[in-house]
Amino acid sequence: MEFNINGRNLSVSDRFREYAEEKVSKIEQLGDKVQRLDAKVTKETNARNAESSMTVELTVLGRGPVVRAEASAADKFAAFDLAYGKLMERLRRARDRRKVHHGRHVPKGVHEATAPLPPASSSIPLHEEASARAAQSSAAPEEEQTGYEIENDVPAGDSPVLIRRKVFPTRPMTLDDAVDNMELVGHDFYLFIDTATGSPSVVYRRRGWTYGVISLDANCDEKSTAQSELLAYRS
Q1: DSSP 173
Q2: Candidates 3.90.78.10, 3.30.160.100, 3.60.20.10, 3.30.1490.100; correct CATH number of 2-101?
């Protein structure tokens, strides 16, 4: 497994590099054909809270889905330990899901899995709830390393607004797989192509352990109202 570590606003010491290399050696035991692990250590020069001045982001890349974890602390060693713990937990969950796919465990039925979940709110449109969720996020999700940028920072006409476009390779996947991938990278939303509809869709986190999904349909009548339905997610 290739291991890359980079520092932003600080230099990475040999002591920290050796510490990180020793800990990440266990990742290959859990990862699905892990090829590379990228670690980014960032020192916030204008951090309001000294307890979160150091941030460590870990990203696992391989033939399986991207797995990502991030944590902040007062020093880089503590931040690394927190991020590493999150990453290992997500890798374990991904491994357990692979066992389900291979038939080693039997997942719960739909009614059993969704019984404790509260119903979706009928008074708040999905697009408004998704926008509110994004506005509450403390920071925009970090761009993954697997995409590529096109015409980076293109001005929007004569305005001072800059538009950054990024394209990601993808394959159609089920809604369940999209939720899994969203959880593995630690984001609040995930863009994917739905195998059930063939449409570009976004799954996003709602309150508690519930999720929402928004899909696009070019053939939909502009005068028609948005259709909502309650879907189930495997356990």
Answers
A1: B
A2: 3.30.160.100
